[in-house]
Amino acid sequence: MMDEQWWEGRVASDVHCTLREKELKLPTFRAHSPLLKSRRFFVDILTLLSSHCQLCPAARHLAVYLLDHFMDRYNVSTSKQLYTVAVSCLLLASKFEDREDHVPKLEQINSTRILSSQNFTLTKTELLSTELLLLEAFSWNLCLPTPAHFLDYYLLASVSQKDHHCHTWPTTCPRKTKECLKEYAHYFLEVTLQDHVFYKFQPSVVAAACVGASRICLQLSPYWTRDLQRISSYSLEHLSTCIEILLVPLFR
Description:
Belongs to the cyclin family. Cyclin J subfamily. Pfam families: Cyclin_C (PF02984), Cyclin_N (PF00134). Keywords: Cell cycle, Cell division, Cyclin, Mitosis. InterPro entries: Cyclin, Cyclin-like_dom, Cyclin-like_sf, Cyclin_A/B-like, Cyclin_C-dom, Cyclin_N. By secondary structure, the chain is mainly α. The chain has two domains: about 25-140, Orthogonal Bundle (Cyclin A, domain 1), CATH 1.10.472; about 145-250, Cyclin-like (Cyclin A, domain 1, Orthogonal Bundle). The chain has twelve helices and two strands; from the N terminus they run H-H-H-H-H-H-H-H-E-H-H-E-H-H. Helix 2 (about 40-50) packs antiparallel against helix 3 (about 55-75), helix 9 crosses helix 10 (about 205-215) and helix 10 (about 205-215) crosses helix 12. The termini are far apart.
């Protein structure tokens, strides 16, 4: 992994276009798994494990994507199998998305309180066979865009000097406002993991909606700027449904 992130480089626009092309080829999520009611529990486990191992958001979101779509296409009938698949998805995603020195060891995963409290241990043989099964299921293609792959690119244009603050909180300083908005956006990004309803939208739409929802929370006017429309190619109207879903938990 290079020190420079792709969205900070000279070819950022080209990479963004490539990701947009790839997201159009993603399969439809059908929500057909008989264990779908257990999804939230296993997403929480993956989130806790990835935080414990300090994995990047892209690895966490790819892990959840792999788990969801594997469950959607194949019969995972027991909790033991689901544990095995979930942990294997996380380790496989970390190898693909994160720095080599951040990829957790199997022993590190097994020793976490999160798994030991569930009386679950994954053997190396089980891990290797499940990783192979996952790779074959996804045709050895893990270049699968998620909202986490788009968010930081859109955050580049998230705050403007021309923004009007409806009040003076948290600050009228663009730098501090951008820092605060980034925290909100990453909070919303994690919210999207909790409900498979977000698969109704393209990943880039979800990422842009996270920025739009953050600007609404900070009461920045306009809610969606020309720069954001230019960089994302989305209008506020295009994002409105997704933004509304994101904001629902805040206004319950």
